Each structure stands twice: as structure tokens, then as C-alpha cells.
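Homework help board

Subject: predicted structure for assignment chain

Our instructor gave us this sequence and asked us to write out the predicted structure in C-alpha cell form, then describe one feature. I got the C-alpha cells but I'm not sure how to describe them. Can anyone check?
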Amino acid sequence: MKALVRLSPDITTKAPRTRARFVRRLVANLRAALDAEGIPAEIERDHVRIYVDAPDERALPVLRRVFGVHSVSPCLEEPAGELDDLVRRGEELYADAVRGRRFAVRARVRDRVPYRGQDVNVALGAALARHGKVDLTTPEITVSLEVRGGVVRWYTETVRGEGGLPLGVQGRAVVLLSGGFDSAVAAWLAMRRGVEIDLVFCRLGGEAHERAVFPIADLLALDWAAGSAPRLFVVPFEELAERLAADVIEPMRQLVLKRLMYRTAAAVARLVRAEAVVTGEALGQVSSQTLRNLRALGDADGLPVLRPLLAWSKEEIIALARRIGTHDLSAGVPEYCALVPRKPATGASVAALRREEEKVPFDPFAAVRAGRRVDLPHGMAGQDELAVTEIPEGAVVLDLREEEEARRLPLPGALRVDPLALDRLDPAEFAGKTVVVACRRGLRSAWVAFELRRRGIDAFHLAGGLSRLRRPSS
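My C-alpha cell output:
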């Protein structure tokens, strides 16, 4: 597959030297993303475009997930030739595609040749009008081409990317990851602005809490951190929470807990030379996130606290969590509410919060040393008793991938299901059968297999996902 990759406007508007640096990082991240999937590729670039040649259709969804990519178009690449050559070739390529349909032609010419893009639009449009109907407003199909460097690239499909800045061009931050919807989305938004991240998980619920959060950290690393190597710092907070419950007045417990989490994240930030702490707080969403409480919480031991979701609604956060893939995993993370007060403080003062915080002696660096660091992805989803590495003969396969990806790369015989609609599956339909749940990376499928087991279905999940299964052996 040859693909034309367009740069995010966040890159193209930069000064030439900055833009060149950002494009170099973007190319490196694209290579890392393709390498992680075992997809060989050749990548070339000029000052406004990147061109990828990869002999694998899996490259398209991989490319669009790399931050800094505005859009991707699979294309046919040929020598450009004269205007008559373009018209003749364009009619040959697309006569059947436009037959009986409304179409438009969009040409961009960036070479010193005796024709312009509009000349191509008119001439090729007239030729294709013998087969379809020109409609520049609401075309059913758009025949597009770019002439640049003596080469013409033909395409009819454009897939939107995530835009933003290439990961790594804006330094490093530490993200407080709870496992809920908000913190995972905040981590994603920070990465989309070019920030490399490490994750800090202050564990409140023991091993069960940890197992629920690990797949979320893995997904962020696998799907969205191409070109980086995020780490997860697990810091046990169970005993600390018990001390808070005993020593801090009830209305202030959650705020003191947050302060200690800020300080823990700041300690990690100093260890990894990060420049800020990122949280998933949204203004007014819960009692601890009122404007006065956020003011009282202050910074993180001298480091700025970034809140990408500050003005977001819960509905908007959940919608983005669905799109980036963390929603289903976050929905399965239990809440630990032992410190939730019946009448929480909604307008704490800085002085009052500090007085309560002083009741709990706390050394954040000692807390971090008592925990552990995990290099991501760590693959817990592939190490449990429900994991299989191959699909057994005769097994019923449930494909959890998005409809577009499942259509582009079909798994013969599989039943595509929506992981958010598991209630529609009747356990009686699978009586006496082995069910294997598969997704692209093996993260979502682990959660779904566990849920199906709870409903009496003999379910397993494909460790490493379909990407591993499809990857050719080396």
C-alpha cells in the first residue's frame, strides 16, 4: 500500500526550522508505529507531505493513529506526464468507479508544468462525465490527484488522522492515572499535544485494582505512544488511605488524598525529569473539583498541574474515551469510595487543607520506592488463565474490532460484536462451545472474555490480539 500522509496544521503553521524538526520527529514516530506492528515500510518526505510505501493494508489504521497526522490517503503512484496523459489515465482508472454516480475531480499541481490543477479538473471532469454526473457540491465519489516532483498520486479515499503535534516535541509530563474515564482521556490529550508521558497509579484497591488499570496503561502505550517508551509507576496507597480515614476530618479527606497524589506524581516527575503533572480533573464535575478546591489544592510541590479536561463535560469525556478505546476498560475498573465523605468540603481554604495534610506525615519519594516501575506495554492481558495464543479448531470467534477495520481486514468465520452490547449475547447460543474473543491488541478482548465467563460462557481471549496472529514470522 502506498499512502500520502498530510501534516497537521499544528505543524505546517510553524516556522521553517521548527517545522523541519517536528516533521523529523513525526517520521521517526511513524516508523516506530509500523515497526511495532511488524509492517516493513519505506518513508519519504518533503516540506508538506510524507509518503509511505508499505506492503500491508494494516498500515492505514496504524498511520492515522500517529499524532501529527492530519489525514491519510491510500494512493496509486505513477509518473505524471502531460495533461493529455493524466486525462487518459484518469478515465481509465475511474470510469467504472463513477459510472452512474455523482462525482467531482480535485487536482493539486505543485510542479512547473504547462497546466494547473483547475485545468486537470476541467479536462478530466469532462472525460469522466461520459460515465457519471459531475456534482461539485455533494459528490458520491471524489477523484483526487496530486502532481508533485514529476509524480502523480491518485486517490479517492481520505481517512482523518488525530492531528495535534508529534509525540515528543513538547517534553515530558507525569500523568496521574486512576483507571477511570477522565485520567486516561487526559493522558491521551497530553500526548496529542506532543507531550511524552509516564503514568503514576496510586493504588487504593490492592491487586484487583492494579489488574484493572494495567490494560488501560498498556492500551495508551500500544495504540497511541508510538516513538516513545512510557512507564507506569505503581505506588501502594492502601495504608495511607487508612491513616487518612483515622486522622483527617471527614470533609477534607478526599482533598488531602489528592494532595498526597499530587506530591507522589511530583516525586516521580523529578525522578524522570518531567516538567509537569497532568490530571483528569474537570471543573465542577465532583465536589473536590470546585474552583475553590482546585485553588486550595495548588501545584504539585512546585510543578504545574495541567488539566486538559478542565472545561469538558462528562458526556464529552466519555465520547472521546469510546473513540480512543479506553472506555470499555475504564468501565470495568471498580471505584474505591472509602474516603468519600457524606458532606465534602466544596470551598476549602489553602490554610485549612495544609493543616489537615500535616496530620499525615508523608514522604513521596519513600512511597515511590515502596512501589514498582513497569515498562509499558507489560502484557498482563496475555499472561492470565483465559489467554490463548492460537484459535482452537471449531471455536466460535467474536471479533471486537471497529466495523471499518473488520471490513478492511476480515477474519473469516468470525462474528463481529459490539463490546458495549454484550447483554445481547445469549449464553444458550454458546452452550457446549469454546468462544475466543479477539481484538486488535488483546486488551479489550481480555476484559470481554472475563465478562463472558461471568455469564456462563466458556470464553478465552487471543493474547496479543489479531495483530500478533497476522504478523508474519521472521
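Reply (TA_rk): Your C-alpha cells look well-formed. For the description, you could write something like this. The first helix runs from residue 9 to 12. That's the kind of observation they're looking for.
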